[in-house]
């Protein structure tokens, strides 16, 4: 019995020791990752088995990391690499890994990471460069350089719900894919596609245009000030596109640059929905779309594009910069729409749908039938370049004011005194366009009449001028100057302009809120100055002041001299 008790106590002590030892062990000691270092002598089949986990180390563990040291590696792949696990494939600095033929295919819950300062090239894959068929799949490109060149189908194909793709830093290139058939460069059918940390992504010369170089039916996030995505379309033909965003797709540009250049395509960015936020640009992000040739009918078709903060949108070289699309601006973005037919409209036959602009801030260069320059409403050369007059969020029609020298300012817009549904708000401007800010705001007018009688009688023949400014602001803000006063009646001169409703003095510094303010001149009798004759006196110098004294002395001397002479005669 005692031996049994002693045995139990010993076992307990051993168990306690083991438990305490396990608690003291670092978490990473629980499982040591295994690594395979490539030599370049592996066959394509051997490399495939190492990556997919078929080949294990001596302990039976699958290799977690497959590493390529500096050097050149060429493998002629004969079959896809099927990945159903987590694996990291690393190309060290100076390593150039080329896989000709074959491709990488990710399945449910797989997590594949390509990393390292070296480079990977998938040359002429058998079907697709990267492929997946489940939204749980993850592909990571972590500060490496990865190129897919010459795939017969999509270079990157995430079907059946897409996958999660993370491209951080480095370069990622998809080019010369889908030379035949109805495919393109990249297709993502759901989930998320993230590009960040200064990554440079280039998609070019892919497909016949139906799916574009980039077909995004998932959510694409491009972030970081140094991150850039560039699409260079060169063979989509007139019926093709640079990028396609179907109904469920979204593009979010956060501080990064997204550039689409088309050479043959009829459309730069072709979307399927202008009701939801198809494209969102924020924190100084840039979307630049340019046609360098081809049919170039629509820059952005059937999309809702929202700009926040100091973001930038520039569309140029297309007949319709925005076609059947809705532009929304907030904050102080910089927008340039330069369509050869319309800046924002809908093509007559193959319309993209409704169009319009909701502008709450920024310098927005798109042409309407008229605009205000130095306070004067001026017809736009060439006619209307926007089919629908822009509005604010309250639905008020807006007028474009071209204000020279205005930048990094906030304009306070007053509430509409005639409509409570039009509240006050602030309009911010950041960078302007070459020294001129294009501000869209509710307009108010000032009518200058020759006389009070002309105003009372609404005599249009005696209306001198009408000037326009932003509601709640003065004429000086928009660069307007007061007109010359009419010739004054006989015997009078011009005094000032007066507000016909209030009787108060009116000038360029007077704030205006009413839709129309009427002013007329007031005259006065000129002030005549009374002329006073001034008698001039000689200057009082020291000598002049003593003349009476000297004259008295002289007279006294003469008298004394005369008396002396008389006395001498008597004597």
Automatic annotation (TrEMBL):
UniProt protein name: Sortase
The entry's keywords: Signal
Residues spanning the signal sequence: 1-32
